[in-house]
Write a structure and sequence with these properties.
3-stranded mixed sheet; about 300 residues; globular
Length: about 300
């Protein structure tokens, strides 16, 4: 639906994952099941960590925060996407689109640094076990868990404001299943230079900085593990961080090509497939990754 220069956009139309009517009911059932399993797995993990005194440790404190972020992340778009599968009207208000875009960016950044905090926790536990309780005190844990939220929601707000200060006069049809930055930029008829470069800088900086913390932490961890003489000791040390390594690989593997390239028609189309992974696949798999590879949670 094209708009004129003198008309303000009051709502957007989300094209969703597919325009094939025959697939809509099937996709509704599929994503409903995935969403319910995600809620059950992550909320169950949070309740278990809360109730079981054996899990009142820094590692599980960060894990419960990661589960909370995953629940919020997938709940930001899934209910609306499910309703659109069964509805002829696939619109979202301008304010609703802003809120959805903001929350997605904020939670994405929060997860970056929550995973980094978890890597640091594993580094201290393995490389400096005698001073672990001092270095990972309650105050330190709360600070490490609070920073991702404060930073994520601050930078997310800045990025969302830059996006919605653009003028949308070409169309109000978003080629995505939620209000994402790249397809919104494609709709703008104003200069997107500042927004695009701010997005690339933010994505590059946050990807590199959070991943650097993780890689450096695991570099020291690997060196420490290799110094352990017994095979059983090496296996035990590695098992404490193996699940986190799997989650990091899964999360970052789907993100590198999402926000670090110009939004063309091809990349916007590809971003929908990538978004399915970090919006649905990662949150549903994380509880299984951490529970199946962790004897305490089992």
């Amino acid at each position: 639906m094209p708009t004129t220069n003198d008309s303000a956009v009051t709502e957007f139309i989300l094209l969703g994952l597919t325009d094939c009517p025959e697939l809509q009911p099937l996709l509704f059932v599929l994503f409903l099941v995935v969403y319910l399993v995600t809620l059950l797995g992550n909320l169950g993990m949070m309740v278990l960590i809360r109730l079981d005194s054996r899990l009142h440790k820094p590692m599980y404190f960060f894990l419960s925060n990661l589960a909370f972020v995953d629940v919020c992340y997938t709940s930001n778009a899934t209910p609306q996407m499910l309703s659109h599968f069964l509805s002829e009207k696939k619109t979202i208000t301008f304010a609703g689109c802003f809120a959805q875009c903001y929350i997605f960016i904020a939670l994405l950044l929060t997860e970056y640094y929550m995973l980094a905090a978890m890597a640091y926790d594993r580094y201290v536990a393995i490389c400096d076990p005698l001073r672990y309780s001092v270095k990972m005190s309650r105050w330190v844990c709360i600070s490490l868990a609070t920073f991702p939220y404060v930073y994520g929601f601050s930078d997310g707000l800045f990025q969302a404001i830059l996006t919605f200060r653009l003028t949308f006069c070409r169309s109000n049809v978003i080629n995505h299943f939620y209000c994402a930055d790249p397809p919104l930029i494609k709709l703008s008829c104003s200069d997107t230079f500042v927004k695009e470069h701010a997005m690339f800088i933010s994505a590059g900086f946050n990807l590199c900085s959070s991943l650097s913390i993780i890689l450096v932490s695991y570099g020291f961890i690997i060196v420490s593990i290799l110094r352990i003489k017994s095979a059983e000791g090496r296996h035990k040390a590695f098992s404490t961080c193996g699940s986190h390594m799997m989650a990091v690989t899964l999360f970052y593997g789907t993100l590198f090509c999402m926000y670090v390239r110009p939004p063309t028609d091809k990349t916007v189309e590809e971003s929908k497939t990538i978004a399915v992974f970090y919006t649905f696949v990662n949150p549903v798999l994380n509880p299984f990754i951490y529970s199946l590879r962790n004897k305490d949670v089992k």
